[in-house]
Amino acid sequence: MSGERTPRRDDGERRFLDAYDPGAYAPAAVTVDVVALTIRAGVPHVLLMRRSARPQLGWWALPGGFVRAQDGPDGPADPDLPDAALRVLSEKTPLPTELHLEQLGTYGALDRDPRMRVISVAYVLLAPDLPDPETDADQAAWIPWSALGHGDGGDRGGRAEIDLAFDHARIVADAVERARSKLEYTALATAFLPPEFTITALREVYEAVWGRPLHGANFHRKILATPGFVEDTGRLAERGGPGGGRRARLYRPGGAAFLHPPLLRGAQSSPAG
Amino acid sequence: MSGERTPRRDDGERRFLDAYDPGAYAPAAVTVDVVALTIRAGVPHVLLMRRSARPQLGWWALPGGFVRAQDGPDGPADPDLPDAALRVLSEKTPLPTELHLEQLGTYGALDRDPRMRVISVAYVLLAPDLPDPETDADQAAWIPWSALGHGDGGDRGGRAEIDLAFDHARIVADAVERARSKLEYTALATAFLPPEFTITALREVYEAVWGRPLHGANFHRKILATPGFVEDTGRLAERGGPGGGRRARLYRPGGAAFLHPPLLRGAQSSPAG
DNA sequence: AAGAGAAAAACTCACTTTGAGAACAACTGG
DNA sequence: CCAGTTGTTCTCAAAGTGAGTTTTTCTCTT
Fold it and tell me: Would you say residue A214 lies in a domain?
């Protein structure tokens, strides 16, 4: 059992905490930045905002803001970092009901913000096609990855057309790589889709994120052979394709979080020779 | 090209920065905690320290400390977070020349430290068998994972004998899971070994971290078939096993960071039937 | 020096998974 | 009804994996 070598909190502890002065340390500003990813018409996009304040006024940047460490005039403290990420993002764009949020990493280089030492905790949000942000008109927009230099799967030679503020280009690059590799080992691709979807729609998510075509028949076989990835609803899509075609079966996400075995991007290749 | 929609820094920017007051935000304390992992005699260990200050005086905890946001009386500012992690750890134990350091995640729940809002950036450090910390005698020690409830590969039913301070048990659990999954997809196992090693030593790393035996012959075949995992030195180990046995070939880490295809823990199974 | 036992490395074989393409089924639009 | 399109199933060769056996080369003992 526990407890023998691990003392419990006692009166001395309580007295210490009452007398503690939280001002006696070198502080830093802590922010959260959110890399919101979605897929629109088969093309992966990231949500960016034009900075409306200095520094780097007018540059494209990730939505973000300061973590509320304590209760204050702006509102109550953020209970945890994911709460801060969702709060900050919801202040800029409406949030979908279904979403996946995960921590990406924390960036804290001395010179990453010219104002002061800023430690930024970055989050990745995956969501089905979201409405255009209605707040602030063209101050926020969904930008295709390709405009940031992440066009193809290997990021080979892609040059960015848009420069981002601070070190946000690096953060977006890390988020894109995170999404690409997570699709290999987890069932996360369904986070980009509505509650019910076809295998073809699922394949198009993989193709969009990885930036290359997959073999439809093999993909189909693999998905159905992976336990817990998808679950058959028993129903069919309303219509076939616009130019004809069989109606596709509808699936919903299965319970599995991880894929065993994984769906490797290095292995599966294009149908075109 | 860039620049058309992205204004460059101008005089207004410079004037803004000169007038900026860094005190006008709600601060939080930022710390780094390091989960140092190594393998001693086939058993994975983590470096823990007994807290010598309140709160939770006397409890086992991860080595850590405050990030130096700016230059101050204690020393110069940490240029980046990894620098802070290495500085903090080197203050408590000698560092090896070869090591792997990667960010694990950031923990910032409101109540994780009773003193104040503390945002902690956790790092994982993998290193070959390190000497015992000589500073402070029994204030720091290498503790086997099993004492923390991470004995077997699946963490099924393992109960911790040692409770950790704050949320450090959770951080260690995340680090252990990170190490276990990284061994599947990367060549990181060599970070636990000296510059030259045998395939058997490499297999023992996997067995220690995953907590289960692997099939030696298949492991051998798989390692040699994975391009860039290891590189033959052409030399042999000094001696065979203590009770006889062929001398093993010596390898060094290959250039590859990722394994294609991966070495899955779910797939490979024990030789005993 | 010879032989028993031990460890590393190579080999065998059945089974599974994968890549590539062909075939079949079910639909749309004319 | 027909041509074209899309979803689904099937086939087959190649590659990879799990399990066990065999061969090689050591150490230790007698």
Answer: yes
**Using alpha carbons only, what angle is made at residue B85 by residues B82 and B91, rounded to the nearest 5 degrees?**
140
Is the Cβ atom of B199 within 7 Å of strand C at any atom?
yes
CATH number of the structural domain spanning residue A207: 1.10.10.10
Structural domain for A136, as ranges: 29-182
Contact B263, B184 (CB under 8 A): yes
pLDDT confidence of residue A157: 55
Phi, psi of A77 (to 5 degrees): -65, 150
Claim to verify: residue B144 and residue B163 sit in the same structural domain: yes
Determine, yes or no, domain membership for B14.
no
Same domain, A177 and A231: no
Residue B262 is predicted with a pLDDT of 95
- Nearest by CB to B2, which of A20, A121, A161? A161
Name residues whose C-beta falls within 8 Å of residue B86's C-beta, 6 or more positions apart in sequence. B95, B101
Judge whether A19 lies within some domain. Answer: no
Do B143 and B43 share a structural domain? yes
For residue A198, give the nucleotide whose C1' atom is nearest its CA: D7
- Cα–Cα distance, A165 to A180 (Å, whole number): 23
Q: Do B79 and A110 touch (CB under 8 A)?
A: yes
Kindly state the tokens that stand for A153: 């799967």
Residue A158 belongs to a domain with what CATH number? 3.90.79.10
- The structure tokens listed for A2 are 């526990």
* pLDDT tens column, B83-100: 999 999 999 888 888 999
User: For chain A, where are the E strands, in sequence order?
Assistant: 29-40, 43-50, 60-61, 64-66, 100-107, 118-126, 140-144, 230-236, 249-253
Q: Is the predicted pLDDT of residue A102 greater than 90, yes or no?
A: yes
